[in-house]
Amino acid sequence: MLKDTPYVPLFDREQYGSIQEIQLSNRIIVYPSPASEQITLEFDNLYDDMIELEITDLLGRSVFFTQQKISSMKLDVESWPAGSYIVSVRNQARNQVLSNRFFVD
Predict the structure, then answer these.
(1) What's the CA angle centered on 97, arms 93 and 103, to 5 degrees?
(2) Segment (H or E) for 14
(3) Which of 1, 29, 79, 81 could form a disulfide linkage to 42, CB 3.0–4.6 angstroms apart?
(4) pLDDT digits over 39-96, tens only?
């Protein structure tokens, strides 16, 4: 996202009635990026509820999935192919979908 560019949600609950996407800059942190051995995922306190966390490659293939209550986690990515990955977090109780991208080198 460009600095000073306003965030425009892709999904608006008022318009679509089902899923609300919110800005991630203060919601989910993925580091380091690029990563070579391990990534750390940190979530703010929005995740007191059960969440679904999925990581996919850019072709949409799932490389990791979990469903649990978490505020942070570490994942070993040493054996993952180099490239871009998308981390998606779904929180059904709060009707939210969050996503972010990270790189493995």
Answers:
(1) 140
(2) helix 13-16
(3) 29
(4) 999 876 555 678 899 999 999 999 999 998 888 899 999 999 999 999 998 887 777 8
Q: Residue 76 is encoded by which pair of tokens?
A: 């070993």
Sequence-separated (6 or more) residues with CB below 8 Å from residue 90: 51, 52, 53, 54, 96, 97, 98
Rounded distance between C-alpha atoms, residue 76 and residue 9, angstroms: 31
Domain spanning 13-104: CATH 3.40.50.1980? no
Query: What count of Cα atoms within 13 Å lies in the side-chain half-sphere of residue 105?
Result: 5
